[in-house]
Amino acid sequence: MTDRHLTTELLRLDRVTCSYGATPVLVNVDLTITDRQFTGIVGPSGSGKTTLLRVLLDAVRPVAGSVHRKDGLRIGYVPQVDAINWSFPVTVAECVLMARMRGRLLPWRSKAEKGEVLDVLERLGIEQLADRHIRELSGGQQQRVFIARAMLGRPELLLMDEPTSGVDVRTRHEVLHLLEDLHQNGLAIVLTTHDLNGMAAHLPHLVCLNTEVIGKGTPREVLTAEVLERTYGAKMRILEHAGMPVVLDEYVAGDNVVALRRKAGA
Amino acid sequence: MDTLLAPFEFEFFRNGVVVATFAGALCGLVGVYVVLKGMSYIGHGLSHAIFGGFAASSLLGVNFLLGAGVWGIASALMINGVTRRRVIGADAAIGVITTASFALGLAMFAIFGRAGRSFDAALFGSILGVSRADVWAVIAVTAAVALVVFFFYRPLLFTTFDPEVAEASGVPTARIDALLMVVLAASILATMQVLGVTLIAATLVIPATVARMLTDSFSRMLLLATGIGAVTGFVGMNLSYHLDVQSGPTIVLVGAALFGIVFAITGRRGLRRTVGMQEHAAPAVAGLRPAAP
Lengths: 266, 293
Description:
The complex is a heterodimer. Chain A has 7 helices and 12 strands. By secondary structure, chain A is of the alpha/beta class. Chain A has a domain of 71 residues. The longest helix of chain A is centred in the middle third of the chain and has 16 residues. In chain B, helix 3 packs across helix 10. In chain B, 52% of the residues are buried. The chains are: A alpha/beta, B mainly alpha. Chains A and B meet through strand 1, strand 2, helix 1 and helix 2 of A and helix 8, helix 9 and helix 12 of B.
């Protein structure tokens, strides 16, 4: 998977620094994204996860460092579901077609576009929902609609901002399995997540971020007490369950040390 | 029937009905974007700002469309700039700009007298004094706005629904927002004489809200809001004549009555569709690109 002979570099960040005004958000970030990658970016709130995603998307320009992109790289972006206005009057098909911004600009869908939208909805298993309003869907279906919108442009790289933020366990499993399937079919994926146990521990590659990159590697390499303390500024305990690391918070109360299972989003 | 058709013998009334119908359709169409982007307050403010330009052009004897048009478009672009930069207190800044412009208009009329076009008509709308030129102006602006919506349908929809992703997808959201503000200013300008600046905001909001209660599809909402606006304008103008009430309030009251009827038919389902319609609606952030420290 990391064999350089079999992978193609899609994006490379060399010592990238970004800031909003005088406040640095990312400092000297080095990161390479290949076509075989499925990476989770973890870190506390305000650590620069979303900014890093926007740098990859070319929506934010670094103030220092450089970003190298493969020529003609196609990127799909799925925003946080919290950022979606679910009362907006759009059906699933209308929403997916929004991604088609080049070429035909007439209001109605061409026959070819109808076919493309149906194909991508079928691929994601929601073709029967094409004429439904986006609010009338389950959490997993809603996430699929926005993945479908990103997939319409046939991306090589899918960027997702907190795909499991605020969703229930079943939806989280559904999203995770869907992303695994898409990755197996050749799509590179980079996502941000707060969820260390429910999401990050299941991914093949992680980046721990707190303004700068604290650690990179497999969950086993990265989800260590030392890296997490440097990332989150809090002590954590690592257990192992079914061959996977499980992160617990260490809560110090007087002389008693109580380990609490880290809550999703904490 | 004869009573209903009687006023059509008068040219001023025929002009008024045509202008009111097109003005209603125009405000209905533009209102969809105004409502979904959470710009109702901006629409209200901009109509007041344009009043300043109306007063200045009336008193200076400058062509109304030219004088108030330049004033209105400048105000629209200034408001757009303030909103996009997300300056702290943007609402307050918009409030100051627009109400100051309105107050300036009132002060100019107070000092120099009410010359030229009717002062009351500009505030509350009137069919008296609607000339053939006004009819063609409203028709031309409606046609131009319809063409803009037709050819920019997709970028307008994407920018309205999801400005951040639209920008990331290559949609020039800054230009699209500016275009929408110019369209809004032109619409207010063209309809001001019949609807009145104090009531234009209602004609932007009501048809779009009623349309939203009836459909979950964006394209259908555009068509419905345009149709509802046109019917409201036509019926309101006729009632205005027969009840001898100014056209602006009558058109707004017809819209409000229609809202009540649709609410009675659709019940909570319709109302629920409008809840949170403007949530997350915000212009794409021009300042998304970080500045140098």
